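does this look right to u?? aspartic acid version
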Amino acid sequence: MLKTIDCGAIRAEHVEQQVTLAGWVHKRRDMGGIIFIDLRDRSGKVQVVVDASKTAEAFATAEQIRSEYVLQVSGTVARRMAGQENPNLPTGDIEILATAINILNTAKTPPLQIDKEANEDESLRLKYRYLDLRRERPQRNLILRHKAIKFIRDFLDERGFLEIETPILFKSTPEGARDYLVPSRVHPGKFYALPQSPQQLKQLLMVGGIERYFQIARCFRDEDQRADRQPEFTQLDMEMSFMERDDILNLIEELMVGMAKKVSLVPLTSEKFARLSYHEAMERFGSDRPDVRYGMELIDISEIAGQTAFQLFADNVRAGKPVKAICAKGCGGYSRKEMGDLEEFAKGHGAKGLAWLAIHPETQEIRGPIAKFFTVEQLLALTERMGAEPGDLILISTDVKWTVYKVLGELRQELARRLGLTKNTGLTFCWVVDFPLFEETTTEEGHYAPSHHMFTSPKRAHIPLLDSDPHAVLSEQYDLVCNGFEVAGGSIRIHERPLQRKIMDLIGFSWEEAEEQFGHMLEAFEYGAPPHGGIAPGIDRLMALMAGEPNIREVMAFPKNQNAMDLMADAPSHVVQRQLDELHIALAGRAIG
Ligand code: ASP
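got this back:
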């Protein structure tokens, strides 16, 4: 070993001991006859003092060193002089009086300042990720992640789960995204698909009698990189036989609470997770990943609005379209410009316009372009229904219900952000259950799209509806939501061949396609497949929430940028012609460059 103790571990109890340290030069201050070096390793920093009058040789070396040089330092631990202590540093009571310094490696001036978080462009941080990783924040996040995974492994091991690796080179396992394909050299013209999740494999493990499986699984999805997505990401993938929905929800709650208590830097607000039906989530929050940290819920005002002289409201209510509203506390004084911004925002989410009423904080007068269409009684009834007080703003949307959900759901979140309602709030989890089995819209050919994935079971009692009214069928899907982010999704699965075939029919798989792509699963279901279900919490998102980070790149060691590129290694990149030839691949003209 090049060191006898970690820099950050030295305390007053070590005073007078001889130590040897190894680490990076965090900072160096030359005070004439004395040079101070802050030496850093993963455990922290310690101050090293090099005194020319005591160690001429070490002093000569110290004069040459620069930031980020790698040193081995031997010396004696000493108490700092009174008044020289640094209470902000765990090692702030002591310093190392150097007797020898050995330069293990030099360093160019780094393009990132390691000792300070400057607001550099993220692409610079990603290009020099190995330098960025020397900083406190990424190290703290990777330590948190390590502890979380360790907690998960211990927790599940204690409950009889087996950790099993499944193949990365496999066949398409769809989760609704595009596959990453890997060409086969030995089977010209054929491709493996990287798993979008181990969904099929974990279900086949259940058929294989494993009963309780988990894996810290890498998943690959070729999606357009909008927002905070990564082409490869990590899930805690789980599957269980002979467990019912509530058994799984309870187990995951216990796991999340335990993990949050043990590792999270952001506290949990409640150990009990609310359970909302999909219908309730949409009606109250306009979203199937509701942020339940604050109110501002969607309220149906169709009854009042339909009776006003405002034609649009009356027409829509007659046509069965809802009129809903949210009440933004204290926003009644928004300027014309602010209201214009909100309207643009609403239009960006599909609204044709945005109706609003603002209550003056003192005079209590109600202003807004549609106020004149309301009688005094109607205004009173509305403010009462909305729980609106002087100074509040009521935002109203009417359209088909999906548009109303979207517009008010997004406005609600936007206003919460503006009002600071989501700042430093802690972690609030809730479950969303009883999803419809299929999405509302069908394809042009009249096929249904699964709202989760095609292996999700319909509720048993709803199976007959598959023939008469597939849209009315509810499923055994459940999602775990935290602070408005979906952090896990899962379901009780189909385990019988005829039902799986039926769902595939509705989704639009021909008999040949189903056999070709999923014949192995359909066949497996014929050999005594047990009832089973599972779930897959997203590790990256959970870690970002628990670390209080704004995006998942901050909790990944080597994330790609938002264009799915690794800026450090410059991937993806061109390959040589020989490699393409071996893989029997010819590039189309426009791809050569
Ligand atoms: N495979 C699903 C997903 O990746 C999770 C599950 O159903 O267990 O979302």
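The first strand starts at residue 18 and ends at 30. idk if thats expected tbh
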